[in-house]
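Hello again, I could really use a second opinion on something today. My current little project is about how a certain protein chain folds up. You're getting the sequence in one-letter code plus the fold written as tokens. Here's the protein in full, and shout if anything looks odd to you:
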Amino acid sequence: MSFWTRRKAIDTITAGHADSHQLKKTLSWPHLMALGVGAIVGTGIYTLTGIGAGLAGPGVILSFLIAGAVCACAALCYAELSTMMPAAGSAYTYSYAAMGEPVAWFVGWSLILEYTLVCAAVAVGWSAHAHGLFKAMGFPDALLAGPHAGGLINLPAVIISMAVAGLLALGTRESAVVNMFLVAVKIAALIVFVVLCLPAFDASHFTPFMPNGFTAAPGPDGVKIGVMAAASLIFFAFYGFDAVSTAAEETKNPKRDLTIGIVGSMAVCTAIYMIVAAVSIGASRAEVFSKSEAPLVFILESLQHPKIAQLVALAAVIALPTVILAFMYGQSRIFFVMARDGLLPRALSRVNAKTGTPVMMTLLTGALSAVLSGLLSLKDIAELANAGTLWAFIAVGASVILLRLREPNRPRVFSTPIWQVVAPAGILGCLYLFISLPVKTQVYFFYAHLIGAAIYLAYGVRKSVLAQAEKAAKGA
């Protein structure tokens, strides 16, 4: 069998692994809902709202709607595949069963890129909100910003990355309980923001609605602007539901709980985003708050609510780590499954007997996030993370189509409605958003996957579990 045709069998996708390479089942649907909401509601709404408004003006509301619609298509596909294959690994695992090992490696590499960069981006966003606190503690400016901002290293971002990694290493359920509490704090802060901004709502702030046009086109400085350019960036604010699918193997009742976690968290967060974006523009002109790294805090201060603004900033400082936690959790599980499949060294997939977590992979993920967040800017990190996610979502849509055609009679606990429309729409939407990304981001994405291809050809193609099985069969 050529490595091009190696595919996992769906019915045996989690079978045959020793206990030391099996994850413990400790999660139920409330944990998954909190994981999804914790992953989705974060830097995107607390920080990227301002950047998106700078690109699209009031039309940023359309950017949220478009990015949310694309993610909704992907979420429905994820719900079908995760309940059909309740295994850790998310889009990587689904691609392995539907399209084979080389495509699965490419998707897994994209997910590694996505999750690591998301952790780094949120750490940078957290640092922006915690800047005043660290300044008051006596930290010099050189340690509060990366080289792109004239500093040496963004030390707060490094600290939060490693702190979250340490929490995850302690245990999945313990991390999930902390996450549920922090998510409640985060949602409460957004509710307070909306209530205080509504009295200042001014409909004139929505005119002109699309000052930079709809399509992604180069602006005066060469940077792409317009509704679609903002959508390709704001897309970062919506994904996170895919992190829920990485918890499939640790879920007590995956057939029920995964559907609730994925679809439920996506629906709740879409409503939150649309409300907060509309209220932000109504309370302050887009061109004004778009210049702030903490736009919600800026708007509250401009409305003469300085103490509440400080509380919202504090809530962000407390609660934004839930996003890092969710994605770092997902990243460590992607790494874990790829190592368990032999595409990375198998030793990396060993689970700690006491905590039931892949401690080595969790700490490695934290270290990677710490390095990136300490040195790079939020915008560059977010855009590159989006590129990896878009290709993972494309793979999920393609997997739904292929498995529907190849195995139409296979039982499906959750079926994507009108899959002939939803799956292709998700694929085309992701392709369009990828094209709307800056050319620099697309080039970096290409180079990153050249490195990934070299690693696969040098190691994974010979060392994977399926490759070893082929070798053993030939020897017999």
Q: What stands out?
A: Residues 101-136 form the longest helix (36 residues). Strands lie at 217-218, 224-225. The radius of gyration is 22 Å. The chain has a mean pLDDT of 81.
